[in-house]
Amino acid sequence: MGNREDLIDGAKRCLYAKGYARTTLRDIADAAGGVGTGCVGYHFGSKEALLNEALSQAARDWAEELTQALAAVPADPGADTLQRFETAWAQIIKSFETHRPLWAATFDALGQSAHAEEVRRHLAAGLEQVRLGLADVLGGLGPDHPDARLVGGFYEALLTGVMAQYLVDPGRAPSSHDLATALAVITAPRLRRDVR
Hints:
By secondary structure, this protein is mainly α. It has a domain at 51-186: Tetracycline Repressor, domain 2, CATH 1.10.357. Helices cover 72% and strands 0% of the residues. The protein contains nine helices and no strands. The chain has helices spanning 3-18, 25-31, 38-44, 47-72, 81-98, 100-112, 117-139, 148-168, 176-186. The radius of gyration is 19 Å and the shape is elongated. It starts with a helix and ends in a 10-residue tail after the last helix. Residues 83-184 form the Tetracyclin repressor-like C-terminal group domain. Residues 7-54 form the HTH tetR-type domain.
């Protein structure tokens, strides 16, 4: 690995151990095996740009792992939409448990976005990719589908909310069955109304 890759790897370790706001340039350099702090400026321009890249790479790794996990679940031809929804969310929630440090670092970065324009811009750019990716993986809607952004936004809102609950109160956070049951209640014909 070169200095650039060592710095990204070191930044990931720091994000998981200390969070976004508490990670220093020296922490990253030390975690990267003693790479000089000047290399951060040379390769990334700033500590924040490096942390943003490390967080993005970690999130992409998670997304690829989740996509593979979802693809590995055998499709049940007899399953209805809610059953497929519950199965997908069981995999997502399982991934929360194994990637808890990533989500803690993500929420830490979200907190910084109100005070750091570079962080906010980076997160905003990533959100569009996340929305379209979720619409594709969970909704089966490709990026050109007219409802992809809308459906992806729904899944992103649900994902962020469920992640927050698992970080703060994992014992009472909703299970995949809870989510599917709630969706069934919300969309029950007696409660449905035209939204225009």
